[in-house]
Amino acid sequence: MKLYGFFRSSAAFRVRIALNLKKLDYDAAFIHLRRGEQSGPEFRGVNPQGLVPALEIDGERLIQSLPIIEYLDERHPEPPLLPPDAAGRARVRALAAIVACDIHPLNNLRVLRYLHRELGHDEAALGRWYNHWIAEGFAAFEALVAADKRTGAFCHGDEPGLADIALAPQIVNAERYALDLAPYPTITRIFKTCMQLDAFAAAHPERQPDREA
Amino acid sequence: MKLYGFFRSSAAFRVRIALNLKKLDYDAAFIHLRRGEQSGPEFRGVNPQGLVPALEIDGERLIQSLPIIEYLDERHPEPPLLPPDAAGRARVRALAAIVACDIHPLNNLRVLRYLHRELGHDEAALGRWYNHWIAEGFAAFEALVAADKRTGAFCHGDEPGLADIALAPQIVNAERYALDLAPYPTITRIFKTCMQLDAFAAAHPERQPDREA
Fold first, then answer.
1. Domains in chain B: boundaries
2. What fold characterizes domain A2-79?
């Protein structure tokens, strides 16, 4: 099994957490995003989208973090990353999608580069953009988990799952850009609980072999 | 069953197609996005994210189009919208995610408004932005379906599924902004096949009761 990733990629971070929770060993291939390795012909042969993560497993080459994690959950059911009931699964997938569809893609490196290179915005404008979309998404995420009795120690009950896997890397990103997390007490509480688990802590960007200052 | 949507929302369009494929009747609530109804307190009570679609079903209130469609597929398995094998499901979910994570959220109304109101960009710059992200995503989508024997009349085999449901509304958007579709012969061929089906055609924005010129 081979995971193509980058220490700073929060989508790769999600897959690292899932692999750790499932106790699956993997080889790591490091695709240096700032040097543009994801756009070269070699990696485009792995993933035509030129994005990490990609996972080679069972003779398949999978892309897109949430579909990869659903695959891992189907093939390696323990511990489950989705609830047993359809309504619970819809809730957890929706929470994950708030991050994976409506926060993270807006703040991806390729988008920040377009804002800078094509549209001429400076670091300050990029920082406001970055935190604006996190704040929008976190406000909804917080409202949904704070108001729902299905929330427990984690986003859904007392075991970590797909929603926590999406949330934790996004909070790490928010911390990097110094977003004020005070308006989001429930999700920061859940984040702290997540990061006490080895599966989450060992997946942190700062603990990856390709990390940089 | 009640679907909160807007004729022009391509995420709502996806759910309309899935409901039609499953032959499920629903009441429609129209949330006028350009008038800002999605941001008012009434709709925020339905979906704290302030985005359509939302679906009330089985006493639950679901948000996020792909999780809604997965719920419909689990509760109403015929016709299936995902393949029977884990690798096929991962492929179809990844194709859907290319649209739902990496194209559509970048071109959503709230993002175009931020680019215009906060960053001062004009219609021409917005149009370039819009088509840039579609072209990036379509190039990958095209490469993935053109090179894969699992592609059939539709994205995966000869029956429509989740990847087609994500693709078709995005092509309708691309046509609106006059993106040149010539570089994407496979996905435009699949799109034409989709739109010959009543389930897709009846879900088109121009056929919704709340459509506007």
1. 2-79, 86-200
2. Glutaredoxin (3.40.30)
Q: Is A57 at the interface with chain B, CB within 8 A?
A: no
Within 140-179 of B, beta carbons closer than 8 Å to A belong to 140, 143-144
| pLDDT tens-digit readout, A37-69 | 998 889 999 999 999 999 999 999 999 999 999
Q: What whole-number distance in Å separates Cα of residue B146 and Cα of residue A16?
A: 30
Q: Which tens digits make up the pLDDT trace of B131-163? A: 999 999 999 999 999 999 999 999 999 999 999
pTM of the model: 0.98
Nearest to B90 among A47, A70, A105 (CB): A70
The alpha carbon dihedral of A181, A185, A187, A193 has a sign of positive
As a three-state string, the secondary structure of B75-114 is HCCCCCCCCCCHHHHHHHHHHHHHHHHHCHHHHCHHHHHH
Complex ipTM over 0.85: yes
Quick check: B187 contacting A, CB < 8 Å? Answer: no
Helix (H) or strand (E) holding B5: strand B2-5
d(CA A146, CA A184): 9
Query: Strands A2-5 and A27-30, how do they pair?
Result: parallel
| Nearest C-alpha in A relative to B133 | A111
Q: Do B97 and A137 touch (CB under 8 A)?
A: no
Q: Calculate mean pLDDT across residues A91-117.
A: 97
Q: Which of residues 25-54 of B touch A (CB under 8 A)?
A: 47-51
User: In 3D, which of A97, A31, A94, A35 has the Cα closest to residue A64?
Assistant: A97
Which one of B48, B90, B118 has the shortest CB-CB distance to A62?
B90
Task: State which CATH number among 1.20.1050.10, 3.30.360.10, 2.60.40.1180, 3.40.50.300 fits the domain covering B86-200.
Answer: 1.20.1050.10
Q: Tokens 């809604």 label which residue?
A: B68
CA distances from residue B68 to A53, A89, A131, B28 in whole angstroms, order as listed: 25, 10, 27, 15
Residues 78-117 of B with CB under 8 A from A: 86-87, 89-91, 93-94, 97-98, 100-102, 104-106, 110-111, 114
- The reply to whether domains A2-79 and A86-200 share a CATH topology is no
Q: What does the pLDDT look like over B86-139, one tens digit per residue?
A: 999 999 999 999 999 999 999 999 999 999 999 999 999 999 999 999 999 999
Instruction: Please list every residue in chain B whose beta carbon sits closer than 8 Å to the beta carbon of residue A119.
Output: 119, 121, 125, 129
Instruction: Please report which confidence band the pLDDT of residue A112 belongs to, taking 50, 70 and 90 as the band edges.
Output: very high
